[in-house]
Amino acid sequence: MESAVWLRDAVCCRGGFPALAGVDLDVTEGEVLLLRGPNGAGKTTLLRLLAGLASLDGGRGTVLGCDLGGERRELRPQVGLLGHDLMLYEDLTVTENLRFFAALAGASETEARAALERLEVSARLREVSLRRLSAGQRKRIAAAVLAVRRPRLWLLDEPHAGLDESGRAAVSGLVRDAAARGATVLLASHEAPAASEVATRTVHLAGGIVVSAAEAAVSPSAEARDA
Amino acid sequence: MREALLVAAKDLRIEMRSRVLLFQVAPFAVATLVLLGFALDADRSALRNFSPGLFWVAVLLTALLAAQRSVAVEHAGRAADALLLSGVGPARIFAGKALALAAQLAALEVGLGVAMVVLYDARIEHFGLAVASAAAATVGIAAAGTLYGVLAAPMGVRETLLPVMLLPVFAPVLIGATRAFGDALGTAATNGWAWFGLLGLFALVYAVFGALAYGPLLEAEA
């Protein structure tokens, strides 16, 4: 299997602070990797680095064969990111958002509609501006945009957060579909049951580095959780 | 070109849905014209003589709001990241956003032109010169506004910083467009087409510079 992600001693600073302080990570194509760790562990920064949206400030790394030092522009169209910020236009309707991103990705209207149906977005919401939707409904739309783009690497930051039961199932189904098509998925999640169902491997982050499961279990946040 | 048009159409659709241009920016523009008239406390013939300068001051102040809005649309919810991830070239994003901003400014200028005729009794004597110089000035303003907008975007104080950065940049447009309009409206004995040339050069420089610089600036924002 080819390597989808290869990081060695990767450092990434956010506002001068090293959010990633020397990460070593290997992910093979087709893997569904669960990233776990306490708040501030560097999960979100790692996903943004792998998306080519944050710069590599130290170490080396390639994602889908693209060097993170100089080929981020080539990498980005192959990557889909579902983050805390949903990267949608609040004044546009659901359909207009989907249509815009589908057009940029070269996808058809039919594919856009299919993505909305896959995420179980009801027809009555499709001509409503995003501003009027709940957080969970917006997340479904963002996931539908991701599905339309069909990236090779899916980067999901807390994809189940804020969703109801059917939403969680729809997102998990989307991850399984992507993996079945050969895409690689990295998901950062605090919701272990939902995320573990779809993940094939778990990596723990703490303090901006990858740690073993045993080390993660005795991290300060784990002690606090267990207390 | 197709991607630039998609970005432009998206920005215009957002404006049609939010109606910020219609209900906030346009009334601000007309109010500026009215207040400038009050401030000068002049009779109609004096206002007519000053009308080219007053018109372009109103346009430039309005352009600050429109440029702010153009940046805010991409900043909210990190939508600019989605554009980067969609693989659209930065020069095309720049072209699309500048095109949408130019279209909005052109609509505002038509409205302000009507207001100028009604309030200041202005008359256009050389229609071709007025349209050509307005078009060149609008492209220059839109290109500079889009470029400086993305420059100010990552800074926490962009609402106050952008006007400080943009107004000096707009100074050549104010001078050139006022002189060209002076000729077009018959209020100044000057060669308006020469000033149109300056406006065209300004537009060209900022269009080329913007297309080249927008990418690195957008990367910095990400």
The helix/strand order of chain A is: EEEHEEHEHHHEHEHEEHH
Largest sheet of chain B: none
Q: What general form of chain A does the structure show?
A: globular
Which second-level CATH architecture of chain A applies?
3-Layer(aba) Sandwich
End-to-end distance of chain B: 24 Å
- Tally of individual helices of chain A: 9
User: Which chain pair shows the most residues in contact?
Assistant: A-B, 28 and 21 residues
What is the CATH H-level superfamily of chain A? P-loop containing nucleotide triphosphate hydrolases
Secondary-structure-derived class of chain B = mainly alpha
Unreliable stretches of chain A = 222-227
Please bin the fraction of helical residues of chain B.
Answer: over 70%
Number of helices of chain B: 8
How many separate domains of chain B? 1
Number of domains of chain A: 1
Helix share of residues of chain A?
Answer: 25-40%
- In spatial order, strands of the major sheet of chain A run 6-7-8-3-9-10
| Percentage of residues in strands of chain A | 25-35%
What does this structure look like?
The complex is a heterodimer of chains A (227) and B (222). By secondary structure, chain A is α/β, with parallel strands linked by helices. Chain A has one domain: Rossmann fold (3-Layer(aba) Sandwich), CATH 3.40.50. Chain A has helices at residues 43-50, 72-75, 94-105, 109-118, 135-149, 165-180, 192-198, 213-217, 220-226, and strands spanning 3-14, 17-28, 32-36, 58-63, 66-67, 79-82, 153-157, 184-188, 201-206, 209-211. In chain A, α4 crosses α5 (135-149) and α5 packs parallel to α6. Chain A is globular and about 50 Å long. Chain B is mostly helical and 222 residues long. Chain B has one domain. Helices cover 86% and strands 0% of the residues of chain B. Chain B has helices at residues 2-18, 20-40, 44-75, 79-85, 90-120, 127-152, 158-184, 192-221. In chain B, α3 packs parallel to α6 (127-152). The longest helix of chain B has 32 residues, at 44-75. The model of chain B has no long low-confidence stretch (mean pLDDT 90). Chain A binds chain B through residues 51-54, 76-77, 79-81, 83, 85-93, 96, 100-101, 103-105, 129, 145, 149, and chain B through 3, 6, 10, 13-14, 17-18, 73, 76-79, 81-88, 222.
